[in-house]
Design goal:
The structure is a single chain. By secondary structure, this protein is α/β, with parallel strands linked by helices. Helix content is 42%, strand content 13%. It is built from 19 helices and 15 strands. The strands form three sheets. An eight-stranded mixed β-sheet has the order 6-5-7-3-8-9-4-10, sandwiched between helices. Strands 12-13-14-15 form a four-stranded antiparallel β-sheet, with helices on one face. A three-stranded antiparallel β-sheet has the order 1-2-11. Strand 5, helix 14 and strand 6 form a beta-alpha-beta unit. Helix 1 runs antiparallel to helix 2 and helix 9 crosses helix 19. The chain is globular and about 85 Å long.
Length: 657
Amino acid sequence: MGDHPASTPTASEPAIDSRGIVPLRPWVVPILPVAMAFAALSLGRLALWKMYPATFSTLEASAISAALLRGLIFDASIIGATVAPAALMSALPLPEAARWWWRRCWGWAAFAAVVALVVVEVADLVYFGEVQRHVGAEAFAAGNDLDLVVAHAITRWPVATFALLALAAAAWGWKRVLARPERPWGIPPWLGTAVAILVIGLVVVAIRGGVTRKPVAVINAMEGTTAAGGYLTLNGPFVLSHTVGGARAVPAYLPPDEALGLVRDCLVSDRDRSVSSDYPILRAHTPPTVPDRKLNVVVLLLESWDATQVDASRVAAGLEPLGTTPRFDALCREGVFFTRFYANGQRSLEGISSTLAGMPVLPGLPFLGQGMELSPMRYLGMIARENGCSTSFMQGSRRSSLHVDAIASLAGFDSYAGASDIQVREPRPARFGAWDSDLLAHCNDTVRAAARPTCSVAFTLTTHGPCEVPEAKWQRFSGEPTITAFRDSLHFADAAVGRFMDRAKSDGWFADTVFVLLGDHTSFFPAHQGMDPEELHHIPCLIIAPGLTPGVSRRVGSQADLLPTIMDLAGWSGAHTALGRSLFDDSIPDGDRWAACAEGMSATWIGDRGWVSALGERRLSTSEGLAEDSAADYHRRLLALQQIANALMRSNRVAPP
């Protein structure tokens, strides 16, 4: 970025104006489009607030101010990823950057990025009026709700008109800026290079949303505020860019009324009452009995606990035990152990989404942290608080891992802890987080100190790869190294669960607590062993609660059933949106029990008689011996569930904001 001597102009190349060298003059071209983008997104946020006052009427002035300020973080992230790169090209320490054609080329590229942001922001303002949420990946689905959006856009023509006029004026002014004679840098080349490197570093920080371990995501806007506060914090381009991976049309496998009827039939329960026709899966739940005392709820979401590796499940299936889980097996004699229980997905975030919201991540749906949070729904922590519980969430991973810290806040949990918050009690700290024993000791301390009643969720880590143990004494298995490491870690985790339950008894809060122990998904072994779709989702589930008669149940269930199940056992009332039913609702015949599980773009419906796996309307496989009429019925119900879940999520009709 050294000095450039004045030159004689030609017909095609403007002169460099060397009169009055200005040191920062070359930064005008990069700075102006960035400033225009910030102004456009800030105006868009103000317009959103003023255009839809009903949506934000519950926000206090302090919450509105916080949303407007926090929104700059999300604005900076999308501007840094779109406008800034082209803008910076005009100020790089290269000889070409001093040429008029270089400056104009990248100048107009940066302006085009600003135009794209404005267009998306205006479209988002229009779309918000239709579904009361920001535009997401569905915008890329051909024809999806296009007629509704266009119809609504007609009523919002002043916004589009203002944006068009503003862009026209900006283009005219920008053309004049780029046509001005250049003035050379007034600083040494080395300093220009240092400034460019510094600015590039700042852009990278802006894109990530700050100096953080995890890049900023949609879910972070919901942290510490309501859905309305999150909507006001976000901007349309940021949301669209972070959900584009799920772009696909809402499936239309069945006539809408037929699909909705099938889903309602799958969810019917004597304990649930429909609340509103506008929100078809929103139901008011009434527990069968109310305990004579307020009960705690503790959910242990156990990383990669797989039915094929847990002896209680193996024995129920007639398989030889491995010796991996003696403490869990003993606990099964104190509660109800479900031998046909399934994870709704194959990843931790899918398990978290289903457990906290009762919403299985079926094909076409995002999970929490990747777009599901854009649609208001009813969460475990939220319902617990409404029923007078204090709430806490903790995980063995780092605080921001998988954005679980933000997810916990959104789901209604008052306190949160990650690995850095957990005391190390084992002989050495874990390399990648907290040992299960330390996490569960922290959980015990949290529950014991909490205001009663309390609802706590602990998400473990030790059984996640690389599957380490804190001491050599836990290395007791042999064989293939990967499986051996997992079984060693599972045996250690099992002992940690046993000690946790022992302490709950000795500390005096065991008898007043509903315990739910389940896997988040299966381990990585079934896929290597060529197992069928049912086994790819088969996880253990044990529920221990006051007044619950111990035993073994073969009822089909999944993580989506846990929310209404907990409401039953804890005596909670209120509305929920789970795509599941209480596991202890005896009014539902066992033959009508089901689980819907996703494997990428395919899904499996598991019923009492067997299972069907399908990729949309194409059936992939069925369980051996399943009659054709049952297979066809399962497939239709699976299609209906996918269709309705997608439609309600996209139209923001899961629950009121």
